[in-house]
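User: Predict the full complex structure for these chains.
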Amino acid sequence: MTQLRLFDTYERKIRDLVPLQGNEVGLYACGPTVYNYVHIGNLRTYIFEDLLRRTIEHAGFELKHVMNITDVGHLTSDADSGEDKMEVGSRRSGMDAWGMAEFYTAAFKNDLEKLNIYPPHIWCKATDHIAEQISMIQELEGKGYTYPTSDGIYFNSRKLSNYGHLARLNIEGLLAGARVEQGERQYVTDFALWKFSKPDENRQMEWDSPWGVGFPGWHIECSAMSAKYLGDFFDIHCGGKDHIPIHHTNEIAQTEASRGTRLANFWMHGYFLELQNEKMSKSSGDFLQLISLADAGFDPLVYRYFCLTAHYRNELSFSWEGLVAAKTALNRLYEAAYEWGEPGEVSEHYRARFVEHLYEDLNVPRALAAAWELIRSDEPNDVKKATLLEFDEIFGLDIASWEPEEVSVPVDVQQLVTAREQARLDKDWSQADALREKILALGFIIEDAGDKTKIKPV
RNA sequence: GGCUGGGUGGCAGAGUGGUUAUGUCGCGGUCUGCAACACCGUUUACGCCGGUUCAAUUCCGACCCCAGCCUCCA
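Assistant: Here is the predicted structure of the two-chain assembly.
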């Protein structure tokens, strides 16, 4: 059997995935901060995590997938200044912070479902785990890793000798950059564990703590919740690559300092979707959502297919042209599979090629290429069908359930089609062509398939 | 300015020290009354300059450019 190998950001190399315990793989994925809708760039990361999950399960491991919902404490600046995004979002949306969190969480889950992304086994919300976070901060305090300032409790990053290894941080370089507001922090890389409510702020979300009324810092939630559901040291932690230098770096610091273990055996990061002109910043409020693509006539699964064409560890350039290409390819794939009829035996040859690429750090573009070679091969149709359906357990494109769209044709168009068929029988080609033009002007394309005429909307 | 990564054919995007990625667009062909659909074929690419090598797009070094992080962000 082929060994599943994955790239680990921490060691910067591809290694065999060997579960820490038995056959179980614990996977923690950083979820969204629910102060707004997610954009298609965010969703690329969740598609990557879904492919990872499906591959791990395909390889025969038992997966436990945990995803958090950040519904408090994510400040508008990672330098621990600025406001809580939840409070800002609440003002913008006119909803209260709690209602807004629920609203955007539901919207997020809806997007995942449309993209055929399996939901995690456990969802966990930061606000449901305040006690766990406080207790972890207390552990850190007990071990001398914290210090207070006028606005909160901070983590002393200099007490860890290997702080920043994940990101290969060059602390002196950061200092030289001098673009970080240090405030009362003792060192640039120190970060907040607990923030005090300001007297004049009137926060909607705040809790009592041994240090005073306030709210947890952003990073502590992931350390506390992953430990609760997966243990202090678990198999895989993923997220977007932008989390490498700060969020994940700090999670590692917290867990290593409080629990004395490494946090995750593998760190995996999804790379960005790049747009030339479109904005992709969630906080600006001006960004492409899944619904924006649907409004432009692209099924969510077209976007999923689009993401399959690039490796997760490379940037992917978004363009509408690229989306059109994905739509065309996906439709050809659907139609071909539909025409093949019932599945038969799976081709061992293509299965082996598929698995070989997939298990080498999720080379999905290569696996997809293998699918196209299969489609254009001389294999019998029932073999092609069975094999492609097996591939689709990873691709997640719903190939099995696809059927041609039922087109409702207006009566006047139907009459023109009937007239054209008569003209063709009469071999009155100029009349037939003229009618085809008329039908096209009304928004329908004619395809003569044998003695039948297909009608498709433009 | 610092750090991390990247520059491949019209577009997107794999990969490799000498061997076909793949998809899409365009072009040619088969099919068709003509088209469309489908199928087949197809231009032959690896930022720039040096170096290593029998051989480099693939390894090494300099340079240029791009992206991300250091400010909100997957």
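Chain A is about 45% helix and 15% strand.
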